[in-house]
Amino acid sequence: MIHVGGIAFPTLLSFLVTALVIEMTPGPNMTYLALVSATEGRRAGFATVGGVALGLAVIGVIAAFGVAEAIQASDILYAILRWAGVVFLLYLAWDGWRSSAVTDAAGTEGRYFARGLITNLLNPKAGMFYIAVLPTFMTPDSPPVPQAMVLTATYVGAATFVHVVIVMLAGTFEPVLNDPRREIVVRRVLSALLALVALWFAWSTAR
Hints:
This protein is mostly helical. The chain has one domain. The chain has nine helices and two strands; from the N terminus they run ββααααααααα. A two-stranded antiparallel ribbon has the order 1-2. Strand 1 and strand 2 form a beta hairpin. The chain is globular.
């Protein structure tokens, strides 16, 4: 049987399907990517995808070495991370609500890359996934770190694929929104939705 990093290929395929299903569930990343891509265009959306991917990869590496598990074990550290994530999502919703239709293109990609990165570094649910779900696909017969790295790369790849599709679909609306009146309505609707997602995030991650 084919193995990748100590993981049997059928197991890796099952994990890939699981990752795709999880990433297709509406959440902060999906909502924010739709907001950015529909109102700022695909370039900003793809920059955000890059930041999201790096954030997920960093958390996966941290989890592989046990740091994420230590955070999950500490109520204080978990609460700090959780509320920082909620506040940042609410800030993004507020920023999207108040932004005008005219955007300075200089530095746009870097700004959205950073936002995608920070949003995921402050997401305790990502850490919970790596701690609670990922280990169930690992085998005790092989070293854990290489398996964790392979599964992390698979998850980041699956998430990035889903996020790119979201950017492509939402980005098709950006030319239609060149009318400032339409743009501001869609921006505020999506920003309000992101604020609701932030509140749901606060409720769903409570201990």
